[in-house]
């Protein structure tokens, strides 16, 4: 269970959330809302990437080390543009002691992109790299921010196959909930305040 209590979140001068509370139960949750409603900011706060006030709890305990317990695939994470995809995958392996994600690379047909720099990746291939880096950690809580945006049909098929086989909890943020509803996700509308 992921619980947010009295969450206050600012992005510059904009108040994204003010005393916002939310409880997500079950293993598959989909947060839905229009562009600009705060979905990405919410996931970034849960992942420990941006400061907030209030309390975020995971499985009944305050979330104290989110970067160790959670993986996030999101455009909110800026990769150094000069690194290659292989460099990022190798760094991730060393940091989190994971195995080589050969199966993920194959599923997303990403092998031709491994030697390319982040700056030279297309939007779709950048999304694939985000997903590979997040899924390879196999965390208890996986956060996916608009995961199917910019993916081709084959990559979307691979994504939904990975989601259906994933043993941990997944929270997706999207403004296109139909595909996730078909995957037995509980839909929760994000109320922007």
TrEMBL record:
It holds the Pfam family ABC_tran. The keyword Nucleotide-binding applies. This is AAA+ ATPase domain-containing protein. It comes from the Bacteria. Residues 25-190 form the AAA+ ATPase domain. Keywords: ATP-binding, Nucleotide-binding, Transport. PANTHER family: ABC TRANSPORTER ATP-BINDING PROTEIN ALBC-RELATED (PTHR42939:SF1). InterPro entries: AAA+_ATPase, ABC_transporter-like_ATP-bd, ABC_Transporter_VariousFunc, P-loop_NTPase. The keyword Transport applies.
